[in-house]
User: Fold this.
Amino acid sequence: MERYKCALPAGRACARVSVPRSGKSMKKRGKAGQQSSGKPRERVRVLITGGRIQRRIQALAQEIRKDFPGEPLHLVSVLKGGVFFLTDLARNIPGEVSFDFIAVSSYGQKTHSSGQVRLTRDLDSSIEGKTVIVVEDILDTGMTLQYLLRLFQQRKPKHLRVAVLLDKPERRIAAVRADYVGFSIPNEFVVGYGLDYAERYRNLPYVGVLLLGPGLKKKPAED
Ligand code: IMP
Ligand code: MG
Assistant:
């Protein structure tokens, strides 16, 4: 696995992923990806295969358990994108694991500095005294994570750590970092494995770059 200089504590590894120039594309599902109703064509170019995702998650799960041996772990995932990552991560962490869900919505320009994230669903139970791992699909500008970390710190967990499947360091605005990173990716808009475009593509078992329009250009990440 290619080592990549990333914003992780010494000794932790994250994999860097580059976008293939002519990688495999999602096969047309009937007319899917090439909508006949005058809508723009869409395709997804595979960036990280399902196999690579699973292998990386197994390694992350072992790393997390090694950091907290014998300790009950409370995974908190952000709906909806983080759900696939949470379930696969939880299955691979040995020992006692519980989990809970939170939902937030972003509004306004994400490029503005603060106050843009709103809680839409709170956790079911208290995290006081627990070892909490926040499980997110992707760390982009960092605004969501910054909001969540502030919120969770006030609730006095024993430990608070962050696991993200994907990290787009180039897009960071908020000064946050993840303790466990699956893959560091370029500044591309990606879908699959929980990540959506207008609520679609979450069910893809891999992560891919979304290509839009008649010429199938990459979707700008800042949209
Ligand atoms: P942040 O607050 O900018 O770090 O963004 C976090 C959220 O934005 C993620 O949890 C995703 O829901 C969404 N997001 C960011 N980048 C992408 C992407 O490339 N594809 C799909 N969703 C994304
Ligand atoms: Mg998310």
In short: Residues 14 and 191 are 20 Å apart (CA to CA). The radius of gyration is 18 Å. The mean pLDDT is 84. The helical segments are 50-67, 83-92, 143-153.
